[in-house]
Design a protein that fits this description.
about 230 residues; alpha/beta; WbqC; Glycine transferase
Length: about 230
């Protein structure tokens, strides 16, 4: 069984969705500390100028001393949806994708963990991805005595996972030899560069999956899911 464990990101970049598609079970790591200015509550989209802009969720009393599933969200869906309309209303697949974003932002959840996880699940449903999802806070022990790798291994053992796949950023954090001691094959997903037309502007890569979906057909995005290397 292939397993991945990641913090819930808000409408993340394509590589995150590739990871979701690659594994049998994906665990949202929601009971670890929140990271300010990361990708948990925001991502990047294009703008109507030649710059990029951040698109995300307003948070209430966000702190790196709190767990992700303790961070409450504010109610600003109307303004956020206006931003999407303003930027992408002329995109070729706007009518297909906008309802997905609207459903996510109007979901009456209370925490950023739930909101960001929902954004991933809704994208997965749209793409026909059948991966099973779970929250780390609901099923797995979170002992302060665990180190970073120790807890990942513990979750893998509980799930009887033979392969653990992390994003390429985990190369500096996790040792293949350490995982091998427990009979777990550790691999890293390195997303390939994907390009497409963004209103005939200079292309900006690694934006939110929102941007990918707005400019590409469903079949094309499904092809992009396989544009990666395993290391």
């Amino acid at each position: 069984m292939k397993l991945a464990i990641m913090q819930p990101y808000f409408f993340p970049y394509l590589g995150y969705i590739q990871l979701v598609n690659l594994v049998d079970k994906f665990v949202f790591y929601d009971d670890v500390n929140f990271i300010k200015n990361g990708w948990i509550a925001r991502n990047r989209i294009i703008s109507n100028t030649n710059s990029l802009q951040y698109f995300g969720v307003n948070l209430t009393q966000a702190s790196q001393n709190k767990l992700i599933n303790e961070i409450k969200i504010g109610n600003d869906s109307t303004r956020k949806l206006k931003t999407i309309k303003h930027v992408y209303s002329r995109a070729p697949f706007f009518n297909d994708v906008y309802p997905l974003i609207e459903a996510c932002l109007n979901d009456p959840v209370k925490t950023i963990a739930e909101m960001s996880a929902n954004s991933v699940v809704k994208v997965a449903d749209y793409l026909g991805i059948e991966t099973e999802f779970e929250f780390s806070s609901k099923c797995y022990a979170n002992s302060i005595d665990f180190g970073r790798s120790e807890r990942i291994v513990a979750i893998c053992k509980q799930e009887k996972a033979s392969t653990y796949i992390n994003s390429i950023g985990g190369v500096e954090l996790y040792s293949k030899d350490y995982f091998k001691k427990f009979g777990i094959n550790l691999q890293f997903l390195d997303a390939n560069r994907v390009t497409y037309n963004q209103f005939n502007k200079p292309f900006e890569s690694n934006l939110s999956i929102i941007d990918v979906l707005m400019f590409n057909s469903l079949d094309r995005v499904k092809e992009y899911l396989n544009f990666f290397d395993l290391k």
